[in-house]
Amino acid sequence: MAGLGELESRVMAALWDADGPRTVRAVHTALAAERPLAYTTVMTVLDNLHGKGWVRRERAGRAWVYTPARAREEAGAEMLRDMLDSLGDPRGVLLHFARGMDEGESEFLRRALSREQDGS
Questions:
Q1: pLDDT digits (tens, 9 = 90+) for 37-70
Q2: Burial class of 17 by CB neighbour count within 10 A (0 to 12, 13 to 18, 19+)
Q3: In DSSP terms, which residues pair with 58 in a beta bridge?
Q4: Which of 28, 41, 48, 86 has its CA 20 to 30 A from that of 104?
Q5: Keywords on this record (predicted)?
Q6: DSSP sequence for 15-37
């Protein structure tokens, strides 16, 4: 999955925050509260996101309805993996990242890795 631009990220956030599939109109309404945006711009962004594999779409009458192709967390993990792979030293980057974590994040990661090793 390719990375996302600023508007694509906002559109994806609107979809991830939704309770179910959203039409172009519903996404446009959600985003227009932040700043003026043309309906056709939102339609184009959703079409591009569909082409990139970020969203699924289905017909609902005459309109398309859109849903994220992946959960927010899964997409974020894939983007992090792509970034790590592109930097040439994933272990070094991870080490620097881990050193910058706060105590709560470190404890969460330790517990999660411990459960993974225990098979839970």
A1: 999 999 999 999 999 999 999 999 999 999 999 9
A2: exposed
A3: 65
A4: 86
A5: DNA-binding, Transcription, Transcription regulation
A6: HHHSSS-EEHHHHHHHHHTTS--
What does 49-81 look like in DSSP terms, one character per residue? HHHHTSEEEEEETTEEEEEESS-HHHHHHHHHH
Residue 91 phi/psi, 5° resolution?
A: -65, -40
Tell me the three state secondary structure of residue 1: coil
- Residue showing tokens 């056709």: 40
CA distance 30 to 34: 8
Residues 15, 18: Cα–Cα separation, whole Å: 5
**pLDDT of amino acid 1:** 45
Residue 59 burial (C-beta neighbours within 10 Å; 0-12, 13-18, 19+): exposed
